[in-house]
Specification:
- By secondary structure, the chain is of the alpha/beta class.
- It has two domains: about 140 residues, Rossmann fold (3-Layer(aba) Sandwich), CATH 3.40.50; about 180 residues, Dihydrodipicolinate Reductase, domain 2, CATH 3.30.360.10.
- Helices cover about 35% and strands about 20% of the residues.
- It has a nine-stranded mixed sheet. The chain has a six-stranded parallel sheet with strand order 3-2-1-4-5-6, sandwiched between helices.
- The chain is globular, with a radius of gyration of 21 Å.
Length: about 375
């Protein structure tokens, strides 16, 4: 059986997932796409798809069996609820939503839903993370009491802080947008629910404070890299990033100034989390890193395990013996091979009526943890995690 997909939202994630994962898949067919911006249809001109500027029309299309929702985070509940009413199988990009009330609304709507609902925490499906899960579950390093995670994000300055993610009213925070990937993985690997969180964060490199440090004063509002007089002298200019680092996040990516006074999301955060099983986790997110890497470390009663997704290498050190094990996992495309495995899980759940590995319950835990972390940072105190 071929499952016919519609994609709602053709930003960076939506368009790439449609082009590189759905279209090439032998058991899937892309039949419809939707975006408010008609220019986003251009990469699909050679495909036999129906294009809509209103996603309601896509949901009315009876040919569409399933939808991939890749709209801005604060619209997920709205689109998911309409997809439920249209009786579509749903693959929704993470995070679940940006507020506790909307998460609860989605849980209520999906409580007895008979269709597939999978949330795109794609790292759960990547071979590297699956291998680590097997090692930890086998008790190789014993009982885990301490863990550490670090997200080095080098594209804050040439992606997130140029587009809608830079404002809290749209993205909630970059913890919600980016950290939930790693925090969801850590929840899964630690195999317990978070119960308390404390945190610190700040906006120091970008936004108005960054402008004052770099230029001595706030910049005028509504500046854009491609037309700015500083486009060849400002290191954060999209033009300079392409010229000196040979990086172009996406053609025609929004070029709003990263130093705009409207920028209000933190560019770095540090969290301390307590789990139900008494494991403690420290986690850091940096949006101005020199390179891109996720790295994790687990301290157990029998040893330590370290791995990162840049080198795809797992290192295990025995605590009581002079033994070290290094495991290499073959590098794969599209989220470390996770996109393909995620689609396989989606199809399996559709055929066998199973619950996906990345599901409503696990995704709600990740989102509630991040929302509690935001409260911990803003209130400067330990916060209980709901649920």
């Amino acid at each position: 059986m071929v499952v016919k997909f519609g994609v709602i939202g053709l930003g960076n994630r939506g368009s790439k997932f449609a082009l590189h994962s759905i279209i090439p898949h032998p058991d899937l067919e892309l039949v419809a796409i939707s975006d408010q911006n008609e220019s986003k249809f251009l990469p699909f001109e050679e495909q036999d798809v129906v294009s809509y500027t209103n996603y309601d029309d896509l949901l009315k299309n009876r040919e569409v069996d399933a939808v991939f929702i890749a709209t801005p985070d604060d619209t997920h509940a709205e689109v998911v609820l309409k997809a439920v009413r249209a009786e579509k199988h749903i693959l929704c990009e993470k995070p679940l939503e940006v507020s506790l009330s909307k998460i609860s609304e989605m849980e209520a709507a999906l409580a007895h839903y008979k269709g597939v609902f999978l949330v795109g925490y794609v790292l759960r499906y990547a071979p590297l993370y699956h291998k680590v899960k097997q090692i930890l579950d086998a008790g190789t390093i014993g009982q885990i009491w301490l863990a550490n995670g670090v997200d080095h994000i080098h594209y804050g300055g040439y992606a997130f802080f140029h587009d809608w993610h830079r404002e809290k009213k749209r993205s909630g925070s970059l913890l919600l947008q980016k950290a939930t990937h790693s925090l969801d993985i850590l929840n899964w690997l630690i195999d317990s629910k978070p119960v308390q969180v404390a945190g610190l964060g700040g906006l120091e490199v970008f936004g108005e404070k960054g402008a004052k440090k770099k230029f001595g004063a706030p910049l005028e509002k509504n500046l854009h890299c491609r037309s700015c007089t500083l486009k060849w002298s400002c290191e954060e200019s999209l033009l300079n990033i392409k010229k000196y680092k040979n990086i172009e996040w996406q053609k025609n990516w929004p070029d709003n100034c990263v130093f705009d006074s409207d920028v209000d999301v933190d560019d770095h955060q540090a969290l301390l989390i307590l789990y139900q099983n008494n494991t403690k986790l420290t986690y850091s997110l940096c949006q101005f890193s020199a390179f891109y890497r996720r790295e994790f470390q687990f301290f157990g009663t029998k040893g330590e395990l370290y791995f990162d997704d840049e080198r795809n290498e797992i290192i295990i050190n025995d605590r009581l013996k002079p033994e070290k094990t290094v495991i290499h996992v073959a590098e794969q495309a599209h989220h470390g091979g996770g996109d393909d495995e995620m689609l396989l899980d989606f199809l399996t759940c559709l055929k066998e009526k199973k619950t996906p590995l990345s599901n409503l319950a696990s995704s709600a835990v990740a989102s509630r943890l991040v929302l509690a972390a935001e409260d911990a940072i803003s209130q400067n105190k330990i916060i209980e995690v709901e649920g």
